[in-house]
Amino acid sequence: MGTLIKNTETILMEEMKALKKENEALKEQLDDLEQHSRCNNVRIHGVEEESNENVELKVLDLFKNKMNLNISPELIQSCHRVGRQDNRSRLRVFKMAQKKFGNKNVWTIRGKIMVKKLNLKHMVKSATDVDKL
């Protein structure tokens, strides 16, 4: 009986180790997938939040009036505020539908928004930076 218990314990320990290893691999795979899904996200800071606002229209207006870029609504896959509402302006995130996006004047690199205007590249960190363009 003692040998049977030892063998069962050994088998269960091996299975537990295998499951832990598989769990770690799945966590890593999930992290990679989440990171890949964020690669086309653009975060915009410093834009005041209004009640009952249409975030997509505000983003389109920002690009048109501050960056001189006409972007059609079809190029935005999703657009929303993130974080909880408090006194500060929440971030706006929108996801570019890169397959449809023909205008190469706005892109992200390592989480930064880059804008090309008059053949010069500018990094945009806030609405103030956009105003300067």
From TrEMBL:
Tell me which stretches of the chain form a coiled coil: 9-36
Provide the alphabetized UniProt keywords: Coiled coil
Organism superkingdom: Eukaryota
Q: What is this protein called?
A: Uncharacterized protein
Q: Which organism is it from?
A: Popillia japonica
